[in-house]
Design goal:
By secondary structure, this protein is α+β, with helices and mostly antiparallel strands. The strands form 7 sheets. Strands 6-5-23-7-22-21-8-9-11-10 form a 10-stranded mixed β-sheet, sandwiched between helices. Strands 13-19-18 form a 3-stranded antiparallel β-sheet. It starts with a helix and ends with a helix.
Length: about 625
């Protein structure tokens, strides 16, 4: 049977099924619409009324019933999938999209093929919107495109990089930073990349695989309020797929003793934990740092005051890592009484739990001390005398009414490590709250439209505990550049990727200010005075130019002009017939639906210029950019 016959039969099926269902009052709404969910429930329950209705149409009977041993068997799964598909009872967007798409040999439109949408295939969010939770409140959209493995032909090939710039400390007499030309990118260069982070990771893999000590990211939280929107209704599954794609390739960057640290909140924390268990191995889960974000929330509906975020930590190989906190200070340890055991500091002699509860009498003043309420001594009554004899416990000859009658010494020699262990509740005080980060941002840039950056102090905590100077830190959700700024101040090498245009005004300018020696954030704490350099580059745009134009279009007429340019110079999907584009019907779509239609026409394999297109006259890549790319990727002429 030819392709046209399939379409004719399919249209007959749609018409017959619609008419049959509308003839039954139980399956129709007051306005004449079909109650899709009620029909599906009836099918799954093998409702006799529905089965009798369907059997009356020869076309319906032939499509959804199978004869077995002389008996017709209802294929309820096939019927459910057909009813659930937007091809049945389509909205205006789907109807228009179907008109310009091709169908497979079963009469199903390729854009709705079940093996693409429902089985967790490779997906990529081809995005116009922001890439981090910090874009919350901005009206920006992630364009989500479902791609099956067969559809991916050029998507993950390395991309051409263009717009190369090197920013470094200016000569002493000039001051500030200067922009220089780029001849080559060295191993110790810091790197800031503009472009889709999934494609950037695949482009950087050959150069940096197994070399990154720390991946530190703050991805979209999928709260419904953070600008992370989708074309389909499976927002949770889409977010998980979006994250899975990036985490899988990110793992390849980690050194054998490397770590990945991911910020997330309660909305997706549990699901992200399971996802990362699968990618990095449950046995490589290191811990979950809790960070206090604010003092109160505005969720009056639940009355539940959520003040924290989670920070999931995984290792490439848990047996090869250790996390330590900040180096301890021992300034309070003195030896004023020439104790032979060395320098000491007064310590708390009580503990919350234990079995030791007895009075201790000061022989000089007669004061009697007990452990505080609900507490116990940290030593037994027999050990008490040993401590008195050795000088670890010293009775005061004079003391105020509120002072304990004795001093319990902790010796410097008793401290085994010069570092504090990193604790899961490391950020539950007010040191790392969002308010602090906002003040840091405002000091650098004034009031800007960029909510909820992370404070430098928390990034410093993570970077200090997991890396040493010279190690590479990667952040592929760079946002305002907190990770890169802190890594730079701490003498680490860094790679940062950001999609949004604010990379110019925020991210890049922030790192330039760091090089100049800005004194915000952790600068004074780490003794930062400026210096260093970084290289900036962009993924060379192809179809992404059209994606940007579509996203910023204000009306249908602008979209129609973009459609003309797309036909001339764009790369369109193989399953789209642009000649079937009816401009009058297109003009009746909402602006949002019209944008989705044009986005669906673009071949996402061609968002950016592939490296193997160097020398292809179709793409205007300069000789200088070609030379830098060959050197960067290590390919010969």
């Amino acid at each position: 049977m030819g392709h046209g016959a399939f379409l004719v039969n399919r249209q007959n099926l749609l018409d017959d099924l619609t008419d049959s269902l509308r003839s039954e009052h139980d399956f129709t709404a007051d306005g004449g619409g079909i109650l899709r969910n009620r029909v599906i429930q009836a099918a799954l329950n093998m409702d006799p009324c529905l089965l009798d209705l369907l059997m009356q149409s020869e076309v319906i009977r032939a499509h959804f019933f199978v004869e077995v041993a002389g008996t017709l068997i209802f294929d309820k799964v096939k019927f459910r999938d057909f009813i659930s598909n937007k091809t049945f009872l389509p909205d205006s967007y789907t109807a228009f999209k179907n008109r310009i798409s091709l169908a497979d040999d079963q009469g199903s439109h390729l854009g709705h093929s079940r093996d693409v949408v429902l089985t967790w295939p490779y997906k990529d969010c081809i995005l116009e919107g922001g890439m981090t939770k910090e874009d919350r409140g901005r009206n920006e959209v992630f364009w989500n495109t479902a791609l099956s493995p067969d559809d991916i032909t050029r998507l993950f090939e390395p991309k051409v990089l263009t717009g190369w710039e090197r920013w470094s400390t200016a000569p002493e007499k000039m001051g500030g930073v200067i922009r220089q030309s780029v001849g080559d990118v060295h191993e110790d260069d810091n790197l800031l990349i503009k472009g889709n982070n999934l494609l950037a990771l695949y482009s950087l893999k050959s150069r940096y695989a197994r070399k990154v000590k720390l991946i530190y990211i703050d991805p979209p939280y999928n709260t419904g309020n953070d600008g992370f929107l989708y074309n389909d209704r499976f927002s949770h599954a889409s977010w998980l797929t979006f994250m899975r794609n990036r985490l899988e390739i990110a793992r390849d960057f980690l050194s054998e003793d490397g770590l990945i640290v991911v910020h997330i909140d309660d909305n997706e924390q549990a699901y992200l934990k399971v996802l990362m268990d699968g990618i990095f191995g449950r046995e490589n889960f290191v811990g979950d740092l809790i960070r206090k974000t604010k003092s109160t929330t505005n969720d009056a509906k639940t009355g539940f005051n959520i003040q924290h975020e989670n920070t999931l930590i995984y290792a490439k190989d848990k047996s090869k890592i250790s996390l330590i906190g900040r180096k301890k200070t021992f300034d309070s340890y003195k030896n004023p009484d020439n104790d032979p055991s060395g320098a000491w500091a007064s310590d708390n002699p009580s503990a919350r739990s234990g079995d030791y509860y007895f009075p201790i009498k000061n022989p000089y003043t007669g004061r009697i001390d007990y452990p505080p309420e609900n507490s116990h001594w940290r030593f037994s009554e027999r050990r008490l005398q040993d401590y008195i004899d050795s000088g670890k416990i010293v009775f005061r000859k004079e003391h105020s009414e509120n002072q304990r009658g004795f001093i319990f010494k902790r010796y410097r020699s008793e401290i085994r490590s010069e570092y504090n262990l990193l604790g899961s509740l490391e950020g539950v005080d007010n040191r790392h709250m969002n308010q602090k980060a906002t003040k840091e941002r405002n000091k650098l840039f004034g009031e800007v439209e960029f909510a909820y950056p992370k404070p430098e102090s928390f990034a410093e905590l993570i970077i200090r505990a997991s890396t040493k100077p010279g190690d590479i830190v990667l952040d592929f959700f760079a946002g305002s550049g907190t990770t890169a700024a802190v890594a730079h101040k701490m003498g680490r090498k860094w790679i940062a990727v950001e999609q949004m245009d604010y990379i110019q005004e925020l991210t890049k300018n922030r790192i330039k200010k760091v090089i100049e020696g800005e004194q915000g954030g952790i600068s004074k704490e780490v003794g930062w005075e400026g210096g260093g350099s970084f290289v900036y580059a962009e993924l060379a745009a192809s179809n992404s130019v059209f994606a940007d134009r579509i996203g910023s279009a204000k009306n249908i007429s602008t979209l129609l002009s973009i459609k003309i340019d797309m036909r001339k110079t764009g790369f369109l999907r193989y399953d789209v017939d642009i000649d079937a584009f009816d401009e009058d019907e297109f003009a009746n779509l909402s602006l949002g639906d019209a944008k989705h239609v044009l986005m669906d026409c673009l071949d996402t394999n061609h968002l950016y210029v592939n490296l193997n297109s160097l020398g292809d006259g179709y793409f205007p890549v300069s000789d200088q950019d070609s030379a830098i790319n060959r050197a960067f990727y290590g390919i010969s002429e």
